[in-house]
Amino acid sequence: MNMKKWWKSGAPWIWLNAGAISISIIMVFGLLLLILVRGFGTFWPHPVVQTTYQVPATGEQVEMIGELRRSETLTGQALREAGVAIPEDQLLVTRHLFKLGNRDVTGRDFTYFIDDFLGEWRYPRDITVLERREWGDFFGQPVRLLEEGQVIAVGDALWPEFQERLNRSNRLFDELRQIERRDIGNISFRLERVRLDQRRAELRGTLTPELEAEFAARRAALNAEYATLQERLNALRAESRRDALVMRVAGGEEVTVRLDQIVNAWQPNNMSVLAKIGFYVRDFFNFIFGYPREANTEGGIFPAIFGTVVMVLVMSIIVTPFGVLAAIYLREYAKQGVLLKTIRISVYNLAGVPSIVFGVFGLGFFVYVTGGAIDRAFYPEALPAPTFGTPGLFWASLTLALLTLPVVIVSTEEGLARIPSTIRQGSLALGATKGETLWKVVVPLATPAMMTGLILAIARAAGEVAPLMLVGVVKLAPTLPIDGNFPFLHLERKIMHLGFHIYDVGFQSPHAEAAEQLVYATALILVLLIVMLNLTAIMIRNRLREKYRAEGD
Predict the structure, then answer these.
(1) CA gap 315, 515 in Å, rounded
(2) 548 membership: H or E segment, kind and range
């Protein structure tokens, strides 16, 4: 009887609900903890091991230098079935995954080694890790430093001299990159503008010999600037290739690495805790503000961060007025009836449509139909090359605005519905019109609810990937959507996005093991970015709430 009363009281459902919520919270915090640990651990300089390995099949002893990534214990039967020579009576086997680097020398970057066949693990203090612009990391021991092929430093004098020359090489590279990306990019942009201006004049029938001569003069001046910059580039490239470092790799072979191919170098076995902390901070900073390399598996993610933030801001500017105005009309002005109920049901259903459907709609309607019409009307001189008739920042933001529009509408409507009718009646009794009551009394009080809708929209938009793959996000964008050329914000350009970057690195990368830590680090930055955007919106909402509460008092 007591059990029946307990079931009828509804208490089991309360406990079931509490248990489900607890499990969900544990799973969410567990996932966040995993991302935090793996993400922040990416930038720590791990020690490098030097040891020997006896090849099970041949018994040959080979030298190995590498960074331990993870260890795992498997059954001996599983490894024997995989072709590894393990004794029949051995039940469990431990194997270690080492990052060997030197991909251009050995042809492989990561390899598993059986613990039973490894020799003594040593940590020589002179083992150096080189972060290269191509081919990933390089592990070895520095032997001598060269300038124009001549030895200039060995022994104890090698490392300080190498650090000084590496800093010089990186300064030259930064100057090279600035000329290539900014100066030459600006000239290319202006040359294209000259071509389009001339083509526009041809289409309008206004191209006179005088105007054609003016275009030719502008083009000649820009080509002269380009030639000057190209000479400077050639001189910088020749100067940057002067120095090289000879490294001894596992097995005794000596390999020469030019300093212009090295981004950073460190000796993790020779670093103190304070030195490792300083390295960690610098590496994290470079990851945030650097540009990607090696099919996005190396380098930084600044273009993806920038693209994500700009896209969310443009989306917010688009969705907020449309969502708020639609909610105000539906709540305050629209005539109640079957049509209005149908519209509300459609809005609610729109929130449940899969995001990829919005992407297909955005590609078909926004990009091809609307963008194509804009190109024919305003950019005929650029055709057949599309300007807005191709995926870009504006269409990605507009698609996400359409995706998140129901959230803003519903939140704003709920906020308007919570405003007591007595406030409206009091305003009308004092002589205010309906419009004045709405815009000066009701809407300000409903602003926190509008901000809540915007917060939810930002949280969803920042993490979307599927629709963006169709309407403007790419694997690698050559330029940022903002520069010093008019109109400064180029809405037609393609962008990078953190969500798509995670997908690309995690599932499309040719070096899966090298990309694993980068996936966690990028996911961590995406989570932190969403939290920062949401906290900013929450702070604005709270200030508005306190402001109008104080005015009401």
Answers:
(1) 30
(2) helix 512-552
Q: Whole domain around residue 252: which residue ranges?
A: 140-264
Closest CA to 301 of 507, 504, 485, 41: 504
Query: Token pair of 254, please?
Result: 């000596």
CA 146, 152, 155, 157 torsion: positive or negative? Answer: negative
In a domain, 254, yes or no: yes
451, 474, 495 - which closes a domain? 495
Residue 348 shares a structural domain with residue 258: no
Q: Are residues 364 and 473 in the same domain?
A: yes
pLDDT at position 234: 92
| Residue 34 pLDDT level (bands cut at 50, 70, 90) | confident
Residues 112 and 150 in one domain: no
Quote the number of domains for the chain. Answer: 3
- DSSP reduced 3-state for 26: helix
pLDDT at 242: 92
By CB atoms closer than 10 A (0-12, 13-18, 19+), residue 387 is middle
SS3 sequence, 365-382?
Answer: HHHHHHHHHHHHHHCHHH
Both 443 and 402 in one domain: the answer is: yes
Beta strands per DSSP E along 103-230: 110-114, 128-132, 137-147, 150-154
Element (H, E) at 299: strand 298-299
Name residues whose C-beta falls within 8 Å of residue 47's C-beta, 6 or more positions apart in sequence.
Answer: 67, 68, 123, 268, 269
CA angle 498, 501, 506 (to 5 degrees): 130
Q: Is residue 31 part of a domain?
A: no
**385/468 same-domain check:** yes
Question: For every residue of 82-128, which 3-state class applies, written as one string?
Answer: CCCCCCCCCCEEEEEEEECCCHHHHCCCEEEEEHHHECCCECCCCCE
Q: Are residues 100 and 184 in the same domain?
A: no
Enter the tokens of residue 25.
Answer: 């919270």
In this prediction, residue 551 carries a pLDDT of: 58
Residue 398: per-residue pLDDT: 94
Which region among 22-26, 165-169, 307-311, 416-420 has the lowest average model confidence (pLDDT)?
Answer: 416-420
User: Hey, what are 540's tokens?
Assistant: 């604005």
Distances (CA, A) of 262 to 171, 270, 289, 348: 12, 20, 18, 55
Residues 306 and 308: their CA atoms lie apart, in Å, by: 5
Q: Is 63 within 8 Å of 252 (Cβ atoms)?
A: yes
Q: How confident is the model at residue 187 (pLDDT cuts 50, 70, 90)?
A: very high
- Mean per-residue pLDDT, 308-329: 92
Residue 553: pLDDT over 60 = no
Tens digits of residue pLDDT in 486-542: 888 889 999 999 999 988 888 777 666 777 888 888 988 988 888 888 888 888 878
Half-sphere exposure (CA, 13 Å, Cβ side) for 405? 22
Q: Are residues 325 and 472 in the same domain?
A: yes
Pairing of β 128-132 and β 262-266: antiparallel
Q: How far is Cα 186 from Cα 173, in angstroms, rounded to an integer?
A: 19
Interatomic CA distance for residues 85 and 395, integer angstroms = 57
The predicted pLDDT at position 533 comes to 82
Which CATH number belongs to the domain containing residue 326 in this structure? 1.10.3720.10
Give the whole-angstrom CA distance, residue 170 versus residue 452: 46
